[in-house]
Fold this sequence. Notes:
The structure holds two protein chains of two kinds. Chain A is mainly alpha-helical. Chain A contains seven helices and no strands. Chain B has helices spanning 2-21, 23-43, 60-86, 88-94, 99-129, 137-161, 168-196, 199-227. The longest helix of chain B is centred in the middle third of the chain and has 31 residues, at 99-129. Classes of the chains: A mainly alpha, B mainly alpha.
Amino acid sequence: MTDSSRSAPLFIGAAVACIFGFGYTLSLIFYQTPLSAGPLYFNQKIFYYHVPCAFMLFLAVIICGIASINYLRGRNQKWDDVSVAAAEVSVVFGTIVMVTGVLWAKPAWGKWWVWDARLTSALLLWMTMIAYQLVRKYGGAGSERLASGLGVFAMVNIPLVYASTRLWKTNHPSANTVPSLDPSMRAALWFSVLLFTVFFILLLRLRIDARRAERRLYECREMALDAGIIE
Amino acid sequence: MDFLRYVKTLAWKDVRVEFRSREIIYTMSFFAAMVVLLFSFAFSRQSATSSEMMDVSDLSPGFVWVAVLFAGTLGLSRAFDRERETGTMRALLLAPIPRAAIFLGKSVAIAIMVLVVQAVVVPLVALFFDAPLFAHPLPLVITLLLGTIGFSVVGSVFAAMLLKAGSRDVLLPVVLYPILVPLFIAAIKATAAMLDGSLEDCWFWIRFLAVYDTIFLIAALWTFESLVIE
């Protein structure tokens, strides 16, 4: 209890910073960066949110994998909380990546979806993390072990998936339509990455705290039941 | 080597149990054959100009591996269900043998069953779709073997983990397939390269399969111990 209440001002501060930061990215993206020349024109703007979210997806999966390894080693519930939180956050960012990616791909490539290595591996990663959620939800007792196993395997799988999908399609679609970046565009992108990282950490911390509170509540209930205070 | 003896004993136990009832092998093989048949209904069609059937032999690597993957998943969950029903898994875990040996014994037994299924599916696909699958026997056998090893290693880990979980029949493919995708791609690519006669590509994918198998064998041996605790 003390732990989360002490860090509450920090949370609120980070949340407020995120809100203002988001507003600032909007201004950066719409007023300070040039419109993309060529067929993309306005659609190129989605890139400033798409790319940071993709980074966060990979970061979340790696955090989930490392936390799972630690959990399997020592059976410390703290690590399990981290891995659950990271997995949930990864699904959120994965969904943003997929939606923004599809919206961008239609004007850029003329198709909603192409089987490019980056697309395929992000899709698979996202699917794996959804599988993680399914296991958690429907696995019943002992599902945290199974889910941790999946987390470890998912992390190990990242390079293999990327390698296999990159080699799978040799007729690479023109993935280099992303124009060479203007300095102001680069600044906007990095600011956006920073923003999403803060946002990511915030979400992760909130989820971890929620998990902890949930477990503590459960323990208290058990204790109260044992003591005969409640029925 | 005591360890290898344990593995052999455990694998032999499973194989013997299986060959007495032949339950899994028969159902798996029939199912795989049925999948191949469904593929032929789905993809064989007449060409627009003549009355001849269109050639779909270039799709046959996909037919082989999808059939094997589906049938293999069926076999996996059945093989582990049998252990659960009779309480064998608990007895095995109580036995004074390393957990890794239990895991490897199980994987070897699964691999043998999958190989039997492949022995049915591959000739069947070659027959139905007129695919020259047997043109290069050595790469074919190696690809099938490596694909089977990878499948049974990863499959055994997840099936063993799911032993106690609720709704394990649905969850097994859910967790298994995303992890198996690189293996699946590599196996299909290797088989397709074989059909095209580009053996260099084929060996490249075979090496990829070997890397996949090694990585996941290590990961599985490392995690199995902590994953399966009663």
